């Protein structure tokens, strides 16, 4: 006899995610769920995205970490509302966590919420948060073979950010092999090569996100 413990958890999460999605639609808030490994540059990418869009949209950030509030403090220092979720060991955020976090935000005066999910390329993929889009960040030092090793997260993402492209020669990253693997898994997902800390490529990524926000609001 096989007992499936995962499906009831996912079913409950999906019901709550649907409630979140309805709330975000009612309030006109686009929610972006960012997935990545630790060290990929999630927070740096968020900061670069905020810089590109803050004159057009009211933005808040939900930070998901196993422990600490270091990233939330970095966001708050830029004058952006930030809510920290510490999972206490869980490797992903869930929809009920997001609902409790947004209760601390003024949704009536927000246009965009960026969720920095817990650093992991496996667990967060299965959990709908009620977001408008999932996007993943891969950094060049992680290697061009990650689509082959973690296909699920590439298939679940609407766009792929390739961060730290200024280090490509140092790490012997095969960009064409990476692009070919991503295209095979998810041919519709655009790839945005950026250097978040230096600003290279950020505007192209911001243009894509801007279009998603405007389509959602329309």
Short description:
With 218 residues, the protein is an alpha/beta fold.
Structure report:
The protein has 218 residues and is an alpha/beta fold. Helices cover 39% and strands 18% of the residues. It is built from 8 helices and 7 strands, in the order αβαβαβαββααβαβα. Strands 3-2-4-1-5-6-7 form a 7-stranded parallel sheet, sandwiched between helices. Strand 6, helix 7 and strand 7 form a beta-alpha-beta unit. Helix 1 packs parallel to helix 4. The protein is globular. It starts with 5 loop residues before the first helix and ends with a helix.
What keyword list fits this structure?
18% strand; alpha/beta; 218 residues; 7 strands; globular; disordered N terminus; seven-stranded parallel beta sheet; 8 helices
- Please, how many helices? 8
Low-confidence stretches: 1-5
Q: Judging from the principal axes of the Cα atoms, what is the shape?
A: globular
Overall pLDDT, averaged? 92
Which strand-content bin applies to the residues?
A: 15-25%
Biggest β-sheet description: 7 strands, parallel
The percent of residues in helical segments reads: 25-40%
Structural class of the secondary structure composition? Answer: alpha/beta
Radius of gyration: 17 Å
Listing every helix as H and every strand as E from the N terminus to the C terminus, the arrangement reads HEHEHEHEEHHEHEH
| Quantity of strands, as a count | 7
Please give the order of strands in the largest beta sheet.
Answer: 3-2-4-1-5-6-7
Distance between the termini: 50 Å
């Amino acid at each position: 006899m096989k007992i499936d413990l995962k499906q009831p958890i996912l079913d409950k999460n999906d019901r709550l995610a649907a409630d979140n999605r309805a709330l975000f639609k009612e309030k006109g808030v686009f929610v972006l769920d960012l997935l990545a490994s630790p060290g990929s540059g999630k927070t740096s990418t968020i900061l670069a995205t905020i810089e590109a869009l803050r004159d057009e949209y009211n933005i808040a950030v939900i930070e998901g970490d196993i422990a600490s509030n270091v990233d939330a403090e970095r966001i708050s220092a830029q004058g952006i509302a930030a809510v920290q979720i510490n999972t206490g060991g869980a490797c992903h955020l869930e929809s009920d966590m997001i609902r409790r976090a947004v209760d601390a935000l003024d949704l009536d005066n927000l246009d965009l919420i960026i969720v920095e999910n817990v650093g992991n390329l496996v667990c967060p993929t299965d959990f709908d948060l009620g977001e408008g889009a999932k996007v993943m960040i891969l950094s060049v030092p992680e290697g061009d073979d990650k689509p082959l090793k973690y296909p699920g997260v590439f298939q679940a993402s609407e766009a792929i950010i390739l961060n730290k492209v200024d280090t490509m020669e140092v790490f012997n990253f095969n960009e064409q092999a990476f692009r070919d693997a991503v295209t095979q898994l998810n041919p519709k997902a655009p790839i945005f090569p950026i250097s978040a800390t230096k600003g290279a490529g950020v505007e192209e990524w911001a243009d894509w996100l801007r279009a998603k926000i405007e389509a959602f609001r329309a």
